[in-house]
Write a structure and sequence with these properties.
Number of domains of chain B: 1
CATH superfamily of chain B: Class I glutamine amidotransferase (GATase) domain
Number of helices of chain A: 2
Strand content of chain B: 15-25%
CATH superfamily of chain A: Phosphoribosylformylglycinamidine synthase subunit PurS
Distance between the termini of chain A: 6 Å
Number of strands of chain A: 3
Strand order of the largest sheet of chain B: 2-1-3-4-11-10-9-6-7
Largest sheet of chain A: 3 strands, antiparallel
Strand content of chain A: 25-35%
Structural class of chain A: alpha+beta
Helix content of chain B: 10-25%
Shape of chain A: elongated
CATH topology of chain B: Rossmann fold
Shape of chain B: globular
Largest sheet of chain B: 9 strands, mixed
Structural class of chain B: alpha/beta
Strand order of the largest sheet of chain A: 2-1-3
Helix content of chain A: 25-40%
Number of strands of chain B: 11
Oligomer: heterodimer
Order of helices and strands of chain B: EHEEHEHEEEEHEEEH
Largest interface: A-B, 12 and 19 residues
Number of helices of chain B: 5
Number of domains of chain A: 1
Chain lengths: 79, 240
């Protein structure tokens, strides 16, 4: 299975990169753009056919290494 | 004293730390490759600055799983003195040896310059040679030094005097303007509740001898040695 994982800063935690991009969008005339958040996207092949087990494994990967849950949140899809 | 300096792939202040302890302060220094799993006979451990594992994923995120970190944790748990400088501080946070996390600098810039930091707690094993409220001039060199922790942890650290160093003006005023990176509560260095693990973003090893024009950083290392000496003396006084 392939896990597609997104890691972003938690809402409420200042994202300086997001802010810089937001300003750039604004100066380019994209006046409707707001609250830009920058994150990481990772793909991981998981050698496990059972979806429940694969999901448990991906969750453990996120908790242990891929996200720092003090400041980041994560979400994933399995395909 | 025997000081262990851990060398991760990408550490680049390891030899500066070795130089200060060995050549400036006359101590025995052991360089510890990150693959080591046994640490014996050390009085203190330094996690130096640098870019361990290229800062991939997050600063310190991969280094914290280096084989040596198990032994460093054991050492800290047993009361051993651990100093983390810059990337070493980031590794201590990722490893959970200190509370909180680092965010990208508010300005997004990599900042390399002298800053003033105020010694908020001079009663620690790392600041005992300083005066309370003393202002030290020490350089910083980082892109991720914007310290963050949740309000409950921050309040506990404040109540416990665990915030040891704070960014300030040269006159010692802790102001938003004196904060180079957006760090919460102007935090430049914190200590754990037990008082044996300190993390700091400024680099004392880069200003610890007069020939460099500034030796404020030497106070951190002298404090450590004085504290270690005191502890050894105390141990000897306990009857067998």
């Amino acid at each position: 299975m392939k896990a597609k994982i997104h890691v972003t800063l938690k809402q409420g935690i200042l994202d300086p990169q997001g802010k810089a991009i937001e300003h750039a969008l604004d100066s380019l005339g994209f006046k409707n753009a707001g609250n830009v958040r920058v994150g990481k996207y990772m793909e991981v092949d998981v050698d496990e056919k059972d979806k429940v087990k694969a999901e448990a494994e991906v969750k453990a990967m996120c908790e242990k290494l891929l996200a720092n849950t003090i400041v980041e949140e994560y979400r994933y899809e399995l395909q | 004293m025997k000081i262990g300096v851990v060398v991760f792939p990408g550490s680049n202040c390891d030899h500066d730390c070795q130089h200060i302890f060995k050549d400036v302060l006359g101590q025995y220094v052991e360089m510890i490759w990150h693959k080591e799993t046994l640490l014996a006979g050390l009085d203190a451990i330094v996690l130096p600055g640098g870019f361990s594992y290229g800062d991939y994923l997050r600063t310190g995120a991969i280094a914290r799983f280096s084989p040596v970190m198990g032994a460093v944790k054991e050492f800290a748990k047993g009361g051993g003195m651990v100093l983390g400088i810059c990337n070493g501080f980031q590794i201590l946070l990722e490893a959970g040896l200190l509370p909180g996390a680092m965010l990208r600098n508010k300005s997004l810039h990599f900042i390399c310059k002298d800053v003033s930091v105020k010694v908020e707690n001079a009663a620690t094993a790392f600041t005992g040679a300083c005066q309370s409220g003393q202002v030290l001039k020490i350089p910083i060199a980082h892109a991720d030094g914007n310290y963050y922790t949740d309000p409950v942890t921050l309040a506990a650290m404040q109540a416990n005097a665990q915030i040891v160093l704070r960014y300030c003006t040269p006159e010692g005023k802790v102001t938003p303007e004196a904060n180079p990176n957006g760090s919460l509560d102007n935090i430049a260095g914190i200590i754990n509740a037990a008082g044996n693990v300190l993390g700091m973003m400024p680099h004392p090893e880069r200003c610890a001898e007069a020939v460099l024009g500034n030796d404020d950083g030497k106070l951190i290392f002298l404090s450590m040695l004085e504290s270690l000496k005191r502890n050894k003396k105390d141990l000897k006084m306990i009857p067998a």
